[in-house]
Specification:
CATH architecture of the largest domain: 3-Layer(aba) Sandwich
Distance between the termini: 40 Å
CATH superfamily of the largest domain: P-loop containing nucleotide triphosphate hydrolases
Structural class: alpha+beta
CATH class of the largest domain: Alpha Beta
Strand order of the largest sheet: 6-7-8-3-9-10
Order of helices and strands: EEEHEEEHHHEHEHEEHHEEEEEEEEE
Helix content: 10-25%
């Protein structure tokens, strides 16, 4: 199934405008992730798609047919929530089969479909167990199985991994990706975790304060962010920003001059205006770079994380994070020289916070 959202708005009775003019076309079989901080409107949008929230204005289409007035059952969607919502007195088999049982599906058909679903999810050996005898990851797989067995065309997932520990989340991410590959269902996934978004999505919708900031592939969002918010939200650690007023074509980072005319030919039009200079932590190289910007700084703190180290630097009160190979980890309090190649520098308008393209 394919989905179209045209100028979707959600305004609550108290006047709070939760979602503003949301526009998106989702192709059949696509995996789309809504991502953003808490309260940005991503779960509200998902609930409008599911039919659990009324749409204040705009048009919602499934396969080209208006579905605004259709209830959740009529929309043929299956939803997996943050809470597992399993029936504690029922076995794994009965929890997965529950929807089919309510529909009066023949027992032989239920048996066949539960076994097939359990095999996909690695739950075959747990069908006789009660939920309390399962780990968090296994319970989440049961909740996914209950949605999967219905064979609908649209899967909606609302932060399904937020109750799991870090190791379980990594495992479940790969399992969800594999399930999507096998079923080919159109999937919309909501999370505040940009790592989940980057690893799972065909396309990502970044939201803030009810507005869509950018829609694109993980690669597009990472390498070509349209504004400061997207640039800072996507990527771990986040992008470093230096915000300063342009004077004689230059700004300052900790007292060190950054000649923006080397990056931006028409820098003159920004004279006296604020510009945001951005670079990702992993873009830094620990040497002087001829075609780039070179800085001297002091190392405040290091975090060795296995194959890389986060280096927290300070230069006259201005801070940034560098991501370097662990073998190059500097000592705390030592002076450090690093460069940012020109092609890895981003410039944003200080007022609009939109990216500046040369």
């Amino acid at each position: 199934m394919y989905i179209t959202l045209k100028d979707i708005n959600k305004i609550y009775p108290n006047g709070f405008h939760a979602v503003h003019n949301f526009n998106l076309e989702i192709e059949k079989g696509e995996f789309v992730v809504f991502v953003g901080p808490s309260g940005c409107g991503k779960s509200t949008t998902l609930r409008m798609i599911a039919g659990l929230e009324n749409i204040s204005s705009g048009e919602f289409l499934i396969n080209g047919q208006r579905a605004n007035e259709k209830g959740p059952r009529e929309r043929e969607v299956a939803m997996v929530f943050q809470s597992y919502a399993l029936y504690p007195q029922m076995t794994v088999f009965d929890n997965i089969a529950f929807g089919l049982t309510l529909q009066g599906v023949d027992e032989d058909v239920i048996e066949e479909r539960v076994q097939k679903t359990a095999k996909i999810l690695g739950l075959t050996d747990y069908l006789d167990r009660l939920p309390r005898a399962l780990s968090g990851g296994q319970r989440q797989r049961v909740a996914i199985g209950r949605a999967l067995i219905r064979k609908v065309g649209i899967f909606l997932m609302d932060e399904p991994l937020s109750n799991l520990d870090a190791k379980q989340r990594v495992t479940m991410r790969s399992e969800i990706a594999q399930i999507h590959k096998e079923t080919g269902a159109t999937t919309i996934y909501v999370t505040h975790d940009q790592t989940e978004a980057m690893t799972l999505a065909d396309r990502i919708v970044v939201m803030k304060d009810g507005y869509v900031q950018q829609i694109g592939t993980p690669k597009e969002l990472y390498f070509d962010p349209v504004n400061v918010f997207v640039a800072g939200f996507i990527g771990e650690p986040p992008m470093n920003f230096v915000r300063d007023t342009v004077r004689d074509g230059c700004i300052s980072f900790g007292g060190q001059t950054i000649d923006l005319s080397r990056k931006l030919k028409n820098i003159g039009r920004y004279e006296g205006k604020e510009i945001v200079f951005g670079f990702r932590p992993e873009a830094a190289v620990l040497e002087k770079c001829e075609n780039g910007y070179t800085f001297c700084c002091n190392v405040e703190l290091t975090e060795m994380l296995g194959d890389y180290t986060n280096v927290y630097i300070n230069q006259n009160g201005q801070q940034a994070i560098l991501k370097v190979d662990s073998h190059d980890t500097p000592e705390t309090d030592q002076d450090l020289t690093f460069s940012v190649p020109m092609e890895n520098v981003y410039l944003f308008d200080g007022e609009s916070e939109m990216v500046i393209r040369d």
